[in-house]
Design brief:
The structure is a homodimer. By secondary structure, chain A is α+β, with helices and mostly antiparallel strands. Chain A is built from 17 helices and 25 strands. The radius of gyration of chain A is 25 Å and the shape is globular. Strand 16 of chain A pairs antiparallel with strand 22 (about 620-625) of chain B, so a sheet runs across the interface.
Chain lengths: ~650, ~650
Amino acid sequence: MDKSKFTTHIPLKNIRIDDVFWRSFMERVRTQVLPYQWEALNDRVPDAAPSYAMRNFKLAAEKTHPELDYGVDPAVGHGGPVFTDNDYAKWLEAVAYTLIWRRDEELEKTADASIEIVCNAQQPDGYLNTYYINTGLGKRFTNLMSNHELYCLGHLIEGAAAYYEATGKRKLLDALIRYVDCVDRHIGPEEGKLHGYCGCEMIELALVKLYQVTGDEKHLRLSKYFIDQRGRPPLYFEEEMKLNGNAFDWKDSYFQMQYYQAGKPVRDQHIAEGHAVRAVYLYSGMADIAKLTGDDKLLRACNDLWDNIVNRQMYITGSIGQSAYGEAFTFDYDLPNDTVYAETCAAIGLAFFARRLTSINPKGIYADVLERTLYNGIISGMSLDGRHFFYVNPLEVFPEAREKSMIYKHVDVQRQKWFGCACCPPNLARIVSSLGSYVHSLNDNTLYTHLFPASEASVSLAGQEVKIKIDTKYPWEGRVDITFTLAAKTLFRYGIRLPGWCRQYHILLNGGDISYTIENNYLLINRDWDNGDTLTLDLEMPVTLIEANPKVRQNTGKAAVMRGPVVYCLEEADNGKELFKIRLGDNPDFACRYEADFLGGVAALYSSGKKQRNWDEDTLYQPLADGVYDEVKLRWIPYYAWANRTPGEMILWVHK
Amino acid sequence: MDKSKFTTHIPLKNIRIDDVFWRSFMERVRTQVLPYQWEALNDRVPDAAPSYAMRNFKLAAEKTHPELDYGVDPAVGHGGPVFTDNDYAKWLEAVAYTLIWRRDEELEKTADASIEIVCNAQQPDGYLNTYYINTGLGKRFTNLMSNHELYCLGHLIEGAAAYYEATGKRKLLDALIRYVDCVDRHIGPEEGKLHGYCGCEMIELALVKLYQVTGDEKHLRLSKYFIDQRGRPPLYFEEEMKLNGNAFDWKDSYFQMQYYQAGKPVRDQHIAEGHAVRAVYLYSGMADIAKLTGDDKLLRACNDLWDNIVNRQMYITGSIGQSAYGEAFTFDYDLPNDTVYAETCAAIGLAFFARRLTSINPKGIYADVLERTLYNGIISGMSLDGRHFFYVNPLEVFPEAREKSMIYKHVDVQRQKWFGCACCPPNLARIVSSLGSYVHSLNDNTLYTHLFPASEASVSLAGQEVKIKIDTKYPWEGRVDITFTLAAKTLFRYGIRLPGWCRQYHILLNGGDISYTIENNYLLINRDWDNGDTLTLDLEMPVTLIEANPKVRQNTGKAAVMRGPVVYCLEEADNGKELFKIRLGDNPDFACRYEADFLGGVAALYSSGKKQRNWDEDTLYQPLADGVYDEVKLRWIPYYAWANRTPGEMILWVHK
């Protein structure tokens, strides 16, 4: 691996997003998701099943410190599933990112108080998982396969590190360092320790984040241990089941232990298998360790897994996970649009993985996929009102099928009130509120821009503070202006991604020509930059019909519509029922119109099309005749914005 | 309803099938299925799970008559599911039909001995269900919803009536008449009786058959009671659950009590819902009762249900039941080819229903559907060796999907050894061996021919014995010669079905023109028939591309291939992998060649076609370009004959 290519993403606090598109999502997170979630974490949402998350922490705190009284009814035990701690952790992480771009004393006070409670639950030896504190510590570390202990710790670390970054406060971080010490005493390669790892990955990448904050090699070493040990024979989970009688839920599955990506050593894994969210969390951790330890074999596995996902198992929306059973990958080129899983969290995990690979080697494909999933499969998870969420993001829905055919049972045709699904809304909140940290990365000689949200950032380059401002109406328009503010002329290399979707572009410096090279789909400009230099990248953004690889049997004979990075779809609200009867016809004419008052402001597309007319006869089968088609006008909307009106049909891949 | 249109099918013993096509199936039933099943019923098949059917009868007989000793280990209890009795009953029924066309003393002796055992199990009050005799009679009639008691009785009646027809022996029939008396004492509309009916229908049509043998109005009345009472509020099954604490398996389903077609009165049912096999068994019984009692409202429900099935919910193969969950119907125009259920038994039940409607009103559509399912979706259930069977009959398989995606878990890509599925093989055996009883029906003034297997039958018409001989190579050739043998000139009307698939035909009498009328797709000839008169119906049988109703979203842009009544498909063994990449192209050229040594003798089709070439790039999505297609030669085989070679892909609906 070529370490000279390594870059570091600029910290969130060094960038301010001023993008019309993204600010609307960030505001929804700040004003809707976070307050609502806090109420939910405290079981104060009327008509909603309780979350139990804060109550579990309070109960654990009272057990640990009998002098405390949070008013928890002592008769009640631990509530909800084993992993409620992580729901709190993701909320805290999103709070932290939000505080970075918008200070809020009230919110910070709430967070501080919550941290107080959480820390009070910590055991004298550092252990801090409410499920086992509340139900019996004797059983801790006996079901690493299914009980999410280290997963919760991972999320808490992510939350604590973010909160430290946002506020400088390290109370929770310090508590978790002690918890990590406790884990380290019980689990690891040394004799007498459990040679285990977590069935639900997260701790791996979280420990790297912790290492980046603490600089403590122990944190890196423990993360590397979890990566190295995973899937090594004899399989820990099988031993653990024998010893503790734990149940195995995947006996009937083809993936077996690969559900947990734990059926073989991770360096021997080259095809994405099993639970999709867990997989991409693991792969992200693997990429971190590969980079930090210079482990070429591990990086090769990462690259293979990446290639397998993006070239064989990824939806056009950047979503992943084809099967509801196991919330899992299925196999190469199997991309059902209607029975799809495509969990919002999995798309988010893919973004994490992409960000890490970008930092190892800036190749355009990583940010292409990042952009694809951000503008499509991730934000499709949230409604325009910020209060309804998709867990599953279908590429096609036919409401009657959802009601009457069990293979569609998991596919909601409307976003659900967010408390119905605990994992996706806060995950969306944390990625949206940390978007700034995906935009630029740099190393000694180059500053790269991967995404183009309107923003202002400051970086230190060649000993100078450099301000980089992006002005754009992206993704609705293709023009991106980059302006540098410098105290003095500075020599550095600047690289800006040429998106994979773009066929024609123009680049100007201060309105004139400029010489550049292209490397891995980054336009590279090496020069003495002057204060006020403005680079204009004009990406032609025509409507483009896309086809899927011929091996994708579900999309044969169909096309999708994209403009720039945005994937479009047809909804019943605009185009009537029975959308599957629609054909694009030859050379459909597309017009694009930005409509500020439609769906929160979108560029809608208008095209001609054909729709097959019904037969006069009420029969099922007839000799093939030339179908009769009506000319229809189609309105296309960005996929992410579907299901914000009267529930109905939606299709993305349309017959040609 | 117009009773002048009623006809009666000629009894099986008055017809002899000499058809090359069907004799091969009948011989497989006789030489493979029946002997094998007898071994299975007696738990003598090595490496197979025991059936327990005969052992359960022996155990029950020993309990009833302690002096008997069949050598059953007294320590063992009832084996297998609650409904093993019906497995025996279907075997006996198929044996009976087989004995009619081919006497076999050995087989008859075996059947007689089995009947001896069964009758010895009967209780003094007539009750005869091994599950409750063996596990405790106190519980009988307490779970009519789920425990199949009357279903088993129904099948036993069918078997006993057939055996009586074949051999004149009525020992079992008489025993079952006593069992029916017992049921009648416990269940019925009168006060003090259980106002129930069976969750798994069969008793309704069986009691009609019994009535036709006995002439006892009680049998008709009891059948009519079961039909009338079904689904009437308060729902019996709900009351029964409350009273006896029985479990309800369909809480999560949309069909609820309609799983059993018991959610509303049957006369108010107009859309086929719930378990497909049960549904068509019920509808067959409803048609019987409608005909026998002149119940117009009941017939209207039958007609509506028929229309709903054949115009909205039937596969091109004549298979029904779209969903594995509940083995059930889903909804109108929902016909998934790959996640399909299409149970062999359901297609057989549809044939039963069609036969009954034909007898009420001879309209071509009934026999069209009967023919469609017989030549396609029914016989696809059996392998060429007669020893492997499909329960589920998919219209498309992609083996890797079956292995790696749970939505295909129920779809086998190979027929299974028959003992793996107890219901479909004997059901296939009984319909194939009773095919003759579907061919002709008649009333006072008209003899109708519905199907065209080469055969000889004798009927009594206008006081004369009339022999009717069919010579044909149908379905491979369209010419059908009908020759009448008469003692003297006889005036009668003869009707022969003009198949719905046929667009061009010629009809000649003794080589010359003949005048006829057409009514409901029957060619009707009213004349003084002479001995030796030969009618030649020549049905042009070109290869025809078929399209599905535009509302069938799964088949948009696709066509199927038929020739005559036979539906064709493409298999990997002939056409390579990735069949979904194949397109028919414009005006594909088809050649038809009968190949005696291929797949047991079939007319194979050969055509041109196109197959999309793979991309050079290993990517998933690209701007739409003109696809590159290779010209390919395609070999099409009859759908029923697929999966008799190396397992692989199969498609039926092919892209245009």
